[in-house]
Write a structure and sequence with these properties.
There is one protein chain. The protein has about 260 residues and is mainly α. It has 8 helices and no strands. The longest helix has about 30 residues, at about 60-90. It is globular and about 85 Å long. The termini are far apart. The model has no long low-confidence stretch (mean pLDDT about 80).
Length: about 260
Amino acid sequence: MQLTGIDLEFWAVGFFAHIALLVVLWTRHRATVFPFFTALITSNAIRTIVLYFIHRRGDEHAYVIAYAILAVLDLALQFCVVYEMASHVFRPLGKWAPDARSGLIGIAYVSIAIALGLTWLSALPSAHSLLRTMLTRGNFFSASLMTELFVGMIALSVTVGLPWKTHVARISQGLGFYSLICIVIEGGHSYFGTASDAGISAILSYLRMTSYLIIVGYWIVTLWQDAPAPRELPEAMRMQLYSLQRRVECDLQKLRTWGR
């Protein structure tokens, strides 16, 4: 497998971008709030190093096997990040919102079924080996699944009336947008084919990598920033809540008196 100079440049930029994002996560104390997301970014940085040194050895078979193992790990960590984002949205006070857990389980089952169906029906190009074919379809399945999960979570949050906090929203937007880009890229590979026009295939791959680097930069900027402070209640609303609290206390006092 031959890599051009621009391929190596993308690898180098991606590695340093991941390091910069990790620095932001730890220095701004986001790593403890989003441990699975931090683990995903750490895994991506380590993957770059591992695949680079395997590539330097020139062993293509070992490279494909390592890529497949790391791809499975990446998908597992993405699942964990989805759960992490869902817990921030649907369990804001340490307890799941009513019907949120069952709704999320339903979304997960439906998303897996749809992603499997789309992967099975898609006319993705076959590679020279079974492992490469499985990797191609696995990438498409992963992108479809992540997109559907984030769309389903947004729809569920609107249904139950729970807002997305700033940093949770930024992480989710980045992952959801990148998954959507991957679906488009894989669709382009399917339409043009990887063997018939290597030039178009390379352009699509560069578009995917460029999109990911833009998203990492977006995370670096937005996660460095502090979340906006909660807005103070207007004076009129504060007085209404105070009056309501006083009324509830009076009613409770009456109930205690009648109970005696």
